[in-house]
Design brief:
alpha/beta; single chain; five-stranded mixed β-sheet; about 50% helix; about 260 residues; binds glutathione; Glutathione S-transferase Yfyf (Class Pi), Chain A, domain 2; Glutaredoxin; 2 domains; 10 helices
Length: about 260
């Protein structure tokens, strides 16, 4: 089967070394494409809704398969399973495949709630996050818009029952979840066996993006869990962009920013 040209629509390149994207769902899509071994182009924009022509929800990521838009990271994983069978689900029998989807769901819902809270709600992190997200914004707009967006994110986190009981309860629940993930993390190999699968990619995406100075407290909590940290490092190595670009020069190359 000839794979049509793949283009991943994402946000602007982050300034944090080694981090493919500030968005966990875009990070998930990048790493899934790498694990699938499929070359792709990248279309970047400053705002998620700049890609709205390809996704009515105004969210990223969107994968363009030729001219066909596949919005949503879960739909992208399904698409990659179709385009590159046996890569993202290597070694999984039916039962393990079902379990991989359960881990994917936990990642995209529960873990993502804590990710969003760490970036937008945590007062300790907010100054660094605001600086990283809004540097390109003109100063007069920067004085108003970040606070408005933050308020909107806080309302969402309240509705999702992540921040409703306040910071202390939220972070206690997060540390409990990290303890369980640390206890469950494989001592060797990957989450569901000897091969990395989309379960690894999904969990990794919602944890790895917090392992930097924007979210120092959460970074340190993760670092204090040795099994989880060693597994994250293995997934990072197994799913990173390949160093050598193929000769057609189309591997993970940027294309004109969609606006
Ligand atoms: N269910 C979607 C969630 C994607 C998502 O929340 N993307 C964020 C960036 S991390 C976004 O586009 N946010 C803008 C918005 O929700 O308006 C997926 O799995 O791709």
């Amino acid at each position: 089967m000839t794979t049509p040209t793949l283009t991943l629509c994402v946000l602007a390149e982050p300034t944090i070394p080694g981090l493919d994207s500030l968005s966990p769902f875009c990070l998930k899509a990048h790493r899934a494409l790498h694990l699938a071994g499929l070359p792709y182009l990248v279309a970047r924009a400053d705002r998620p809704d700049a890609h709205r022509a390809h996704n009515p929800t105004g969210q990223v990521p969107v994968l363009l398969v030729g001219d066909r838009a596949v919005p949503d990271s879960t739909a992208i994983v399904h698409e990659l399973l179709r385009l590159a069978p046996g890569t993202l689900d290597r070694g999984l029998d039916d039962r393990a495949l079902a379990e991989a989807w359960l881990w994917e769901e936990l990642s995209d819902t529960a873990l993502n709630g804590f990710y969003v809270a760490a970036r937008w709600a945590d007062d300790d992190n907010w100054p660094a996050v605001r600086a990283a997200y809004f540097t390109a914004m003109p100063a007069p707009v920067r004085a108003v818009v970040p606070a408005l967006l933050r308020r909107r994110q806080m309302q969402t986190l309240h509705a999702r029952d992540v921040w409703r009981a306040g910071a202390e309860v939220c972070w206690r629940r997060y540390r409990d979840l990290l303890d369980r993930l640390d206890a469950r993390a494989p001592r060797e190999g990957f989450w569901l066996g000897p091969h990395a699968t989309f379960a690894d990619v999904s969990l990794f995406a919602q944890l790895h993006g917090l392992r930097n100075g924007l979210t120092a407290k959460q970074r340190d909590w993760i670092a204090a869990r040795p099994n989880l940290t060693a597994w994250l490092d293995r997934v990072d190595r197994a799913t990173r962009a390949p160093h050598a670009a193929p000769t057609n020069g189309r591997h993970h190359a940027d294309v004109a920013t969609a606006r």
